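Predict the 3D structure for this chain.
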Amino acid sequence: QEAMDQIGAVLGPLMLFLTLAVKGREEKLSAYAFSFLILGIPAVITLALVFFARFKYPRPHEFEKDDPNPVPKRFHRAYWFYLVGIAFLAAGFADFPLMAFHFAKTGLLPDALVPVLYAVAMGVDAVAALVFGRLYDRRGMGAIVLSSLISAFFAPFVFLGHSVVTAVVGMVLWGIGMGAQESILKAAVTTIVSKEKRGTAFGIFNTAFGAFWFLGSWLMGVLYDRSILALVIFSFLAQLAALPLFSHSGRLLRRTAEASSQTSAGN
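Done. Predicted structure below.
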């Protein structure tokens, strides 16, 4: 799902670029209006498919089979450890506008290449979502620990590097983190929480993630004006702080599954 989402995220800007290139000789406002009209086509198709799916499959939850090792209907302890880990991870994960500002301010990249670098990151995002999604199906929480560890190194490359190569490496690492965030971080919630509680669990998850990403982004913006090194240290350590929490959450889930299996075997 995330890979397909990012294919659209790459194709959309390319469609906009090609449309503006073709209509570039016209008055600018007219060219932009036509570009957004073109982008409206896939939007209408999307809505049509959603309505069709709603009509064709009105009760999609019935496709889900019962879990042989069901999690408790109340929130599992693993969920709360996972949520705190998510808060640390979100707080330390810089948003792209701050990195784009850094590239422009330092003159490390020409302005025209900044969107290209973002497109590269989105391409990595799509591939990472596929790779770590498959790894999550096999290794569970270990995939989240690995992806978070890898992406934690984006900040030193992006903010302390002095070449195009370090900028590209940093954005690739950042793209890996984005791919994991948009795929397996959410998938883990469905593993930890019973389906009766998923709506509430996702609401809490998204609120915590958004709030701490906002607070972390604000703090990194403040630190950027004072000390870029302090920004990098904060970003790196905040993301590393999430790793033991994810690991502990995974251990709690395994213990629950083992206890459930032993109970079933005893019966």
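The mean pLDDT is 84.
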